[in-house]
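PT: before anyone asks, these are the final sequences, not the draft ones from last week. 663 residues across everything. Please model them as a single complex and drop the result in this thread when it's through.
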Amino acid sequence: MRELTYADALREALREEMIRDPRVVLMGEEIGVFEGVYKVTRGLLKEFGPERVRDTPISEAAIAGAAIGAALAGLKPVAEIMYMDFVPICLDQIATQAAKMHFMSGGKLKVPMVLRTQYSLGRAHGSQHSQFFPSWFFQVPGLKVVLPSTPHDAKGLLKAAIRDDNPVVFIESGMLYRTKGPVPEEDYVIPLGQCDVKRKGNDLTVVAVSRVVNEAFAAAAKLEEQGFTVEIIDPRTIQPLDLTTILESVKKTGRLIVASDDVKSGGIGSEIAAAVIEKAFDSLDAPILRVASPNMPIPFSPTLEQAYMPNAEKIVEAAKRLIG
Amino acid sequence: MELTRTFKSLEAGDHARHGLSRERLLQMLRRMIEIRRFEERVEHLFLQEGALIGPSHLYLGQEAVAAGAVGALNDDDLITTTYRGHGHAIAKGVPLKLLMAELFGKATGTCKGLGGSMHVAIYPEKGSVYATAIVGSGIPIANGIALALRQAGKRQVVMTFFGDGASNTGSFHEGMNLASVWKLPVIFVCENNLYAMSTRADQAVAAESVASRAEAYRMRSILTDGNDAVAVFLAAKEAIENARNDKGPALLECMTYKLKGHGVYDRAEYRPREEVEQWLKRDPINNFEASLLEAKLATQADFDQIEKQVAAEVEESVAFAKTSSVLPFEDLMKYVYAR
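LR: through. Structure below.
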């Protein structure tokens, strides 16, 4: 199969959906003339014109609001917020407006929009350009939250997000844009709300999210040398969360690590651990461990940032505590 | 900025030329009376009967803005409003019984009882697309609605209502700027009722007027008497025509006053008595009726007939709401996500 980068896979998804459906429009800062800070929208302004690829002022609330309004009135907007750190600037629009509209209108309003954003942890972007807080959205029913880890998933999930009738927060990883992986030529869509078992194993389940999936693979290779097989599950969407696949795996392995780039307290790991304990306490042979970022702002110094981030080594260490 | 124009400034016989037939004027009056009597009944249901609870922000005193501005729209034009949205919904023709049922939290309400007073105006069937409870947040959304209309090649416009308080939010400034840059067909209607809760606009708005803020965004603005339905109608009509003909958005500031406080439980004791009394003399319905009589466009009998019909409609809405049922809790999950 041909290989594409994560960024190219995303671009292909946008382009194919724009061809497929004239209602799909893009808007955001620097997405047109500049073709996106990470070049995900390269060539799209030229191909589709300024009505469908809209450069915006630096006005996150106005961008999100425009996308929501356009979605209410028949378009399928994909709005880009350049860094996840800027999402809180438009959080009212996303969490309090878009997420509630279908419910509080008694099902009359639909908001088929995607808010694309990315987090740049690992790129020495400092405390205000590296943040990753997808677990905030656990508290916002009505949103879907997608976190692709491979080019294949990025393309299929973005297409599903665009076709979805709900507001979707689509969180990309800045560290993954240049990574390559197999992407089929033919049209495919990955349904939102399905985990992917990325690696089969019997001794330990690692639920890994976004950038950390690759770290989990490196950890699994090391552990395999020591005779332990690791099952890696990528939730791909945390809202809705496919708990069934995670529970099946935990019932088989009896051990669970949740590894993700967010801060440990109240994070993705916290939610998944609690849900697994509620549903499969008797299947657990050991405590559930979280491998996540420490509870502090992200340091700039590249050396310190590397120390801060979850990695394969930290996953191996956690695994050894469980397997002994 | 343009000067205030009032109904009385029109020469006799000029009304029709401005699109104001006798029927249209009486229809505007009828909407104002519907709003007034509906809101009075709602207040009674809250304060005297204890039949309603929760936050509710009455539109009493501001009727001329909704009736005049919405009256200048076509039926298929769209609006967004706020938590003070009962009046706009009524002006757009949302049936009173659906509004009342929503206030009672009943399944027959505009939002099936899931929205309540602050979102009761969500009724896209009549072009009332959205009602937000967060100050300022409807403004960027109105832009998006207008964008979709334009992109679909439609000639409809969007009118978004908000208060003086909202003009201090980032959403207002970001939204005004984007609407102007993109030349969107939006009419921003600021109902300046002099207070954001208890905070006086003159202590919170660092500008000569809200309307003057439009200049910063290369946008036309009109400051008008919000207690004069005809003045509002004429100002809105011009803004609507410009927007419809791709001449860009406009900001319309309507000076008005709440008869009551911020919310239904607020006694508004922070307002000076003299100020309240002055504004009471400028009651938009009384003045409108007096002007119609003076211009010999209506008689007291016309008013009596409207009052009678509206009173019956309001009572019918209460009966409808009271006898309707509440959505079963088990059904709620299916409203979280669209399928």
